[in-house]
């Protein structure tokens, strides 16, 4: 008798019957979708100018010249929502960072003075999320809600370092909004259209009330998102608008301040003086970001920005310069200098073009060209001290902040070329990869100003420079705990 090709219990009819009776796998539980991961990042920014004060002008996260930087370790615990679910879905996100980048990432009123060092600690995100399947003519895909603390929706570059193309950031990112506290609603109007609407306490501000908010007025955050060409073309227009100037006050929390007993200076003695009511002078950040993938491996990103501060740069009601007013008063005995002041306002506009080409699974070649015009030298600054950034948000004295005179303003041109390297690693516990990002960057002022620093010489006693060249590189180690 011929031997059967397979045992009888694996015959097709019985196998199909057993498959029909086999219970389906249970759906994942809510807790099983919680993830715990993060990354560790460190790098160095080598400035060929050898600046005498070790400051890379125009940089924040890479502001320290020729010295290793521990940018940070980030731990994220989250349960993301499914924005396409047909059912109610709830989630959360908590993201903690410790490192030198945290100097710029604080919310006012939250751990900002906890550590007197370049390495600091705080939250990047702490929010609750919900997907609401409320469908209608204006919300065919439902509605998503986020409440708490979260990064800004503005711009092409993001707070999560490993999701950017470069180690150094654009001027648009460095001197735009970072973080917000409030509520955001995303309405999925159509598959190709999302509408964002929300209210926040401001930029890098915490919960309402002192010391969480530096003034008493809310801000608007919102815009639209277009998803076209099967996801190969996205266009996002976002605005954040509202009062950002701190109320000038003495500090009632003497132990809370970085300088015990320090009092906030009043205009015009503060660099960011607001000749205005801080609750009515508005600051506007606007971005139009387009991302296009013409091929599978090529990505092109265009980020256009316009910023406006209505309460800065005091001038007299005559509109004349201080020198002219002094001459008139001296020659004719007038008192134009005593006339009430009014804000002149300041604005900036910029465009950054990115290109990224994926050579293979290991190498990605990246380029960025940016033009940034700071009309009154209001936005671009250097904040090298431990507490400089948060002191500016609070309205406290900032003794080590570096600002350029208002004058003619500065037009910046920045060219960056780099490579993202993700080498293959053997399977390791916890560690999920390795990212190395070397880059060359050249910044220059194209309107004849000298905003950058270099070594002091007899011919250049102020150490000023029209341009700076840099080699920067960071290493990122992503990890997963759950």
List key phrases describing it.
Porin; disordered N terminus; 482 residues; 4 helices; 7% helix; two-stranded antiparallel sheet; 20 strands; mainly beta
Overview of the structural elements:
By secondary structure, the protein is mainly beta. It has a single domain, classed as Beta Barrel (Porin). It is 7% helix and 40% strand. The protein has four helices and 20 strands. The strands form three sheets. It has a 16-stranded antiparallel β-barrel. A hairpin with a 2-residue loop joins strand 6 (179-190) and strand 7 (193-200). The relative contact order is 0.14. The model is unreliable at 1-18 and 250-272 (pLDDT under 50). It comes from Methylocystis parvus. InterPro entries: BBP2.
How does the SSE layout of this entry go?
Layout (H helix, E strand, L loop, with lengths): L11 H10 L13 E13 L20 E12 L9 E11 L20 E13 L10 E9 L19 H4 L4 E12 L2 E8 L18 E10 L4 E11 L38 E11 L5 E12 L4 E3 L5 H11 L8 E3 L2 E13 L4 E12 L13 H7 L15 E12 L13 E11 L6 E2 L10 E2 L1 E14 L2
Antiparallel strand pairs: 1-2, 1-20, 2-3, 3-4, 4-5, 5-6, 6-7, 7-8, 8-9, 9-10, 10-11, 11-14, 12-13, 14-15, 15-16, 16-17, 17-20, 18-19
Overall CATH architecture: Beta Barrel
- Structural class computed from helices and strand pairing: mainly beta
CATH topological fold name: Porin
Number of strands: 20
| CATH homolog superfamily | Porin
**Beta-strand residue percentage:** 35-45%
| CATH top level assignment | Mainly Beta
Helical content stands at: under 10%
Low-confidence stretches: 1-18, 250-272
The dominant shape is globular
- What order do the strands of the largest sheet run in, or round the barrel if closed? 1-2-3-4-5-6-7-8-9-10-11-14-15-16-17-20
Number of helices: 4
Overall pLDDT confidence: 87
Question: What is the N-to-C order of secondary-structure elements (H for helix, E for strand)?
Answer: HEEEEEHEEEEEEEHEEEHEEEEE
Whole-number tally of structural domains = 1
């Amino acid at each position: 008798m011929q031997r059967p090709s397979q045992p009888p219990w694996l015959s097709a009819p019985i196998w199909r019957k057993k498959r029909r009776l086999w219970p389906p796998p249970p759906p994942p539980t809510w807790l099983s979708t919680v993830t715990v991961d993060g990354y560790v990042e460190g790098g160095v920014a080598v400035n060929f100018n050898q600046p005498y004060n070790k400051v890379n002008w125009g940089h924040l996260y890479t502001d320290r010249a020729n010295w290793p930087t521990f940018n940070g370790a980030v731990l994220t615990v989250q349960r993301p929502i499914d924005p396409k679910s047909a059912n109610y879905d709830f989630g959360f996100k908590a993201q903690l960072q410790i490192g030198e980048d945290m100097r710029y990432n604080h919310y006012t009123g939250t751990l900002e003075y906890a550590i007197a060092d370049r390495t600091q600690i705080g939250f990047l995100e702490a929010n609750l999320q919900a997907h609401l399947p409320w469908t209608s003519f204006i919300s065919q895909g439902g509605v998503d809600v986020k409440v708490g603390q979260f990064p800004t929706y503005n711009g092409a570059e993001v707070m999560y370092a490993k999701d950017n193309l470069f180690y150094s950031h654009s001027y648009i990112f460095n001197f735009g909004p970072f973080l917000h506290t409030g509520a955001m609603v995303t309405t999925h109007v159509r598959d190709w259209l999302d509408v964002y609407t929300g209210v926040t306490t401001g930029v890098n501000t915490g919960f309402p009330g002192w010391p969480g908010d530096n003034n008493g007025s809310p801000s608007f955050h919102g815009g639209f998102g277009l998803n076209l060409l099967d996801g190969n073309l996205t266009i996002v227009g976002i605005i954040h608008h509202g009062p950002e100037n701190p109320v000038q006050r003495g500090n009632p929390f003497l132990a809370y301040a970085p300088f015990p007993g320090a009092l906030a200076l009043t205009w015009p003695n503060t660099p960011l003086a607001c000749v205005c009511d801080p609750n009515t002078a508005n600051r506007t950040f606007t971005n139009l970001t387009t991302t296009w993938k013409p091929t599978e491996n090529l990505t092109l990103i265009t980020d256009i920005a316009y910023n406006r501060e209505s309460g800065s740069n005091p001038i007299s009601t005559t509109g004349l310069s201080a020198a002219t007013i002094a001459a008139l008063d001296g020659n004719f005995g007038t008192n134009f200098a005593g006339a009430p002041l009014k804000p002149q306002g300041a604005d900036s506009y910029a465009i950054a073009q990115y290109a990224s080409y994926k050579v293979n699974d290991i190498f990605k070649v990246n380029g960025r060209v940016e033009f940034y015009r700071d009309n009154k030298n209001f936005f671009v600054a250097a904040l090298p001290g431990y507490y400089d950034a948060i002191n500016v948000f609070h309205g406290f004295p900032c003794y080590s902040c570096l600002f350029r005179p208002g004058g003619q303003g500065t037009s910046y041109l920045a060219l960056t070329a780099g490579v993202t390297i993700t080498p293959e690693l053997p399977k390791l516990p916890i560690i999920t990869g390795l990212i190395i990002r070397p880059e060359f960057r050249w910044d220059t002022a194209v309107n004849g100003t000298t905003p950058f620093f270099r070594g002091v010489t007899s011919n250049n006693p102020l150490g000023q420079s029209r341009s700076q060249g840099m080699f920067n590189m960071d290493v990122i180690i992503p990890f997963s705990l759950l």
